[in-house]
Amino acid sequence: MSRIGKHPVPVPAGVTVQVTGQTVTAKGKLGQLSLNLIDEIEAKLEGGNVVVLPRTETVRARQNWATARTNVANLVTGVDKGFTRNLEITGVGYKAAVAGSELVLNLGFSHDIRYPIPAGITMKCDKPTSISISGADKQQVGQIAAEIRSYRPPEPYKGKGVKYDNETIIRKEGKKK
Length: 177
Known about the structure:
By secondary structure, the protein is α+β, with helices and mostly antiparallel strands. Helices cover 20% and strands 38% of the residues. The protein has two domains: 72 residues, Outer Surface Protein A, domain 3; 82 residues, Outer Surface Protein A, domain 3, CATH 3.90.930.
């Protein structure tokens, strides 16, 4: 029995969930998201909860049971509260700003990096050294944060670069005389 998969996903007030065949659709105040489940997994609505169960006792069904349940929970949480990822920029002259529908990054290159903001995603720069990425789709928010971080990942000697707000950079000692 899966420890995660056996727990039902509660549906909060203001969110409607539909299960049609292998497709789970959630609609809430932040939009609408849908998920296609594999054939070995089934989802049912039971009394305000979404229950995810394996159809068969195959290895693939047991492997994907908890993953499917977590993806459904992320769907429901995303349309209700949304997800946020924060990035911090460290380095002299490194900064970010939102200009219209683009994120403009100055990361020490000879040119500015212009990252187009996709639909369904909001970006804020409260300070020139912090970026906040928000949206309903957890995978998309994380992917965008990883792409922005990849432009200038933090280096271990001075710590310069773009890092997640909860990331710890292990610093190295420089040259000794």
